[in-house]
Amino acid sequence: MLRAQVQISRRLQADLLADHDLALGSYDVLMHLGETPGGRLRMNDLADRVLLSRSGLTRLVDRLQREGLVVRQSCASDARGLYAVLTPAGRARLDAATPTYQQGVREYVLSRLDDEDLRQFGHILDKLADEPGRPVSARAEEPARAEPARAGEPARTVPA
Asked: Could you say which residues of the chain have pLDDT below 50?
């Protein structure tokens, strides 16, 4: 499992660096910010989503801020809290890099799986990503999400 994860991550990273001068970890931060209203998240919440330590995220956001891709904003309700906020330049870099990332996912993962593999893969990922103690019925109430399509095929809808 770790070997596959590392190989896929290295390939995605190489593609993003070559085409957009953007590391996979940076893409991950921009993607999470881009999915939120206003393009902003509290630093603690962002660290949880990208699976980095608080200090690791701080260093990464420092680099992204130097590049003009994010800014930090103070939290009005908590003077100690900070938000990471996607800038217009960050949105543009994310928008440019997303097709490269999606193509990599299709090429390095989805193209190697048939329809039954994809159903099982989605089910397994749901189980592995699920929080311990969360009832299975809660997953059934979540909306479906679209998976990227293989070249020439329609997008698939799988449980979120």
From this structure: 137-160
